[in-house]
Amino acid sequence: MPRYSPFAPIPIPTSNLLTFLSPPESPLHTSTKPIWINSEDPSISLSTGAALPWTKRLAMGLERFQVASGGSRVKRGEVVLVLSPNQIFVAVAYLGIVGSGRVFSGMNPNYSVQEMVYQMKNTEAKIILVHPSLVDNALAAAKQADISPDRLFQFSDTVNSNKNDVRDWNNGLLATTQESHSYQWPELTGGEGAKTIATINYSSGTTGLPKGACVSHRNVIANVLQSTAIRGVLQKYFAERGPPQRWIGLLPLYHVTGSVGVLDPNCECKPLDDDGNEVADGEPATRETMLPNGWLRTGDIAIARGDWFWIVDRKKELIKVNALQVAPAEPEAALLEHDGIDDAAVVVTTKNFPGHTSSPRRMQSKRIHRLRRPKSKNGLSPVFPNIHG
To answer: Where is the sequence biased in composition, kind Polar residues (predicted)?
Structure first.
């Protein structure tokens, strides 16, 4: 039997995410309290009252954008990629892109050029917002992905001069503050909120290259309301016994976490064994991918006791590299690009071969050394490579 949340179901609106977050009567439109702060220079910050005009400037700019090279406009439902380290204008970019009806997809700033190319092509990105420090890599990737340079714009908390012909978003993309006053978020009615994609987040690519997971406006709104509902349960305790609430994510030593708690409102789950059979309390439940009847195999190995769950592991073929998850398929694909390699399989081993390091992320053909080459029955010869990150 499915397990249900101990909390009552909550209604989930089907509106545009920005309409939900900032309705016309919301005090957020006039708030001057900084909520996004540059940690290196706290004098640089954004309040919601300051950020919302920026989001409308971007949204309106996307509506009317036309590249100088004569390419197509950026339609609703098309992807805008963001390539940036953490900075206060990432939130502005996200809200403006999603609110306009376009789709946000973020790229890891530590990606190699080839990894950027893959995501640019896979999303069919129409515009790329890039931090000034990453312009060179973004241009190299865009060239390989056949994306015109005039679809790239620099964005940060300062106005930037042109860099290799990549303009600042203030020069050619954003509407003026005056123009943006008339902008209204496109409404999503009926079931549109559940079908309209807000974000494409890329997974670790367990069974191959990274895959984009589409998240709808309704998905995001549901997560906000579920989190709010859980915090509401604790509100009385904090109001009576504690100081004003401040939330921060911390892990105990060695990343050993406690229970992840109970199910959020509107959530159901079923612990399953490896064969898809339901298990009783205390047995691990793991599986991957989707079941035909709509249940998601999350890949979590969990312990369930009553209403409470402990996530104890993940069942995935993944290699951890500097806190990143790398699927074997990625280094395998890189190895197969070499003319001298017919087939490749990457596995995790706790034994270090001479000169071996535990980083499969970047390999160069000149650094792959044959350590031993025993012949197999089919004539193929396994090679143990020296991999340098």
So the answer is: 353-362
* Residue 83 near residue 116, CB atoms below 8 Å: yes
**For 17-186, CATH number?**
3.40.50.980
Which has the higher per-residue pLDDT, 349 or 127? 127
The token pair that represents 305 in the structure block: 């006791």
Residue 257: CB atoms within 10 Å: 12
Over residues 238-254, the pLDDT tens digits come to 555 555 666 666 555 44
Residue 122 and residue 147 in contact, taking contact as beta carbons nearer than 8 Å:
no
Cα–Cα distance measured from residue 129 to residue 42, given in angstroms and rounded to the nearest whole number: 24
Least confident range from 37-46, 47-56, 218-227, 270-279: namely 270-279
Residue 382 backbone phi and psi in degrees, to 5: -65, 140
CA nearest 172: which of 162, 158, 186?
Answer: 162
Q: Which two tokens stand for residue 345?
A: 């399989």
Q: State the angle between helix axes of 48-64 and 89-99 in degrees (0 to 180), rounded to the nearest 10.
A: 50
CB 120 within 8 A of CB 148: no
Please spell the DSSP secondary structure of 342-365, one letter per residue: S-------SSPPTT--S--S---G
Give the count of beta carbons closer than 10 Å to the beta carbon of residue 68. Answer: 9
Letter for the amino acid at 303? I
Residue 152's DSSP bridge partners are 128
Largest CA distance in the chain: 74
Closest among 253, 297, 259, 294 to 275, alpha carbons compared: 297
pTM of the entire structure? 0.70
Give the count of beta carbons closer than 10 Å to the beta carbon of residue 277: 10
- Give yes or no for a contact between 115 and 81, defined as CB atoms under 8 angstroms apart: no
CB atoms under 10 Å from CB of 222, counted, come to 20
